[in-house]
C-alpha cells in the first residue's frame, strides 16, 4: 500500500511540473509581438524629397539645431514657449534642395494637408516643435506639430506625420 501511495504522489508531482511548464510556455507564446519602441525611438515623421524618403524619431529631431518660438496656443489660450527644429534646417538635414523648393506639404496623421509656400517654409519662425514650456506637447497636439506664428490656423498643423517637398 505504501508503494502505491508513493507512486501516486510521484505522479501528482510530475503532472504538477508538466502543468506549470505548459502554463509558462503558453504565457510566453501568447505574449504577442514585442512591445513597440518608446515614443522617443519610434519614427514620428517621414520626410519625402524627390526619390528620398527618410524617417525621424524624437531623438533624431533633438540632435538637430534647436529653435525656440513663442506662440499663443488655441489649446491653452495663452502664449507658450515652444522648442523644435526650423523647417528649413530639417529639410536640409534630410537632403532636400532648398534652392529648388517650391512648396512643402505638411500632412497630419488624419490625412489633413497644409501647403507651405516657399517663403513660409524657409522662414526662421516656421518650426516643427516637439516641446512646449520645457515638456512634451499636449496630447491634443501630437508628438510633433508645425507652427508658423503670424500665419493662419490652417498652417499650425497638429499630429504631423509627413513632410513632402515639392520642387
Q: What does this entry show, briefly?
A:
The protein has 4 helices and 10 strands. With 167 residues, it is α+β, with helices and mostly antiparallel strands. A 5-stranded mixed sheet has the order 2-1-10-5-6. Strands 3, 4, 7, 8 and 9 form a 5-stranded antiparallel sheet that branches.
Tally of domains: 2
| Helical content band | 25-40%
In the CATH hierarchy, what is the architecture of the largest domain at level 2?
Alpha-Beta Complex
Give the overall pLDDT as a whole number. 83
Write the H/E string, N to C: HEEHEEHEEHEEEE
What is the CATH domain class of the largest domain? Alpha Beta
Spatial gap, N to C terminus: 92 Å
Q: Spans with pLDDT under 50 lasting ≥5 residues?
A: 23-40
Principal-axis shape equals globular
**Structural class assignment:** alpha+beta
Amount of beta strand: 25-35%
From the alpha carbons, calculate the radius of gyration and give it in angstroms. 26 Å
CATH topology of the largest domain: Sulfite Oxidase, Chain A, domain 2
Strand order of the largest sheet: 2-1-10-5-6
Largest sheet: 5 strands, mixed
How many alpha or pi helices?
4
CATH-wise, what's the superfamily of the largest domain?
Answer: Oxidoreductase, molybdopterin-binding domain
DSSP strand tally: 10
Q: Could you walk me through the main structural features you see in this protein, from its secondary elements to its overall organization?
A:
The strands form two sheets. Strands 2-1-10-5-6 form a five-stranded mixed sheet. Strands 3, 4, 7, 8 and 9 form a five-stranded antiparallel sheet that branches. A hairpin with a 2-residue loop joins β7 (127-132) and β8 (135-136). With 167 residues, the chain is an alpha+beta fold. The protein folds into two domains: 1-32; 43-166, Oxidoreductase, molybdopterin-binding domain (Sulfite Oxidase, Chain A, domain 2, Alpha-Beta Complex), CATH 3.90.420.10. The longest helix has 28 residues, at 2-29. The protein is 27% helix and 34% strand. The model is unreliable at 23-40 (pLDDT under 50).
Amino acid at each position: 500500500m505504501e508503494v502505491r501511495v508513493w507512486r501516486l504522489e510521484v505522479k501528482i508531482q510530475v503532472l504538477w511540473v508538466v502543468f506549470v511548464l505548459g502554463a509558462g510556455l503558453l504565457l510566453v507564446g501568447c505574449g504577442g509581438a514585442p512591445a513597440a519602441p518608446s515614443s522617443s525611438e519610434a519614427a514620428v515623421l517621414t520626410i519625402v524629397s524627390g526619390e528620398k524618403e527618410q524617417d525621424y524619431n524624437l531623438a533624431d529631431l533633438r540632435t538637430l539645431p534647436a529653435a525656440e518660438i513663442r506662440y499663443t496656443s488655441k489649446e491653452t489660450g495663452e502664449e507658450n514657449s515652444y522648442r523644435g527644429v526650423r523647417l528649413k534646417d530639417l529639410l536640409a538635414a534630410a537632403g532636400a534642395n532648398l534652392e529648388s523648393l517650391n512648396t512643402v506639404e505638411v500632412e497630419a496623421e488624419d490625412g489633413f494637408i497644409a501647403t507651405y509656400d516657399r517663403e513660409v517654409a524657409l522662414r526662421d519662425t516656421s518650426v516643427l516643435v516637439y516641446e512646449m514650456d520645457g515638456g512634451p506637447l499636449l496630447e491634443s497636439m501630437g508628438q510633433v506639430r508645425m507652427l508658423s506664428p503670424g500665419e493662419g490656423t490652417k498652417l499650425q498643423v497638429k499630429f504631423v506625420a509627413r513632410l513632402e517637398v515639392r520642387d
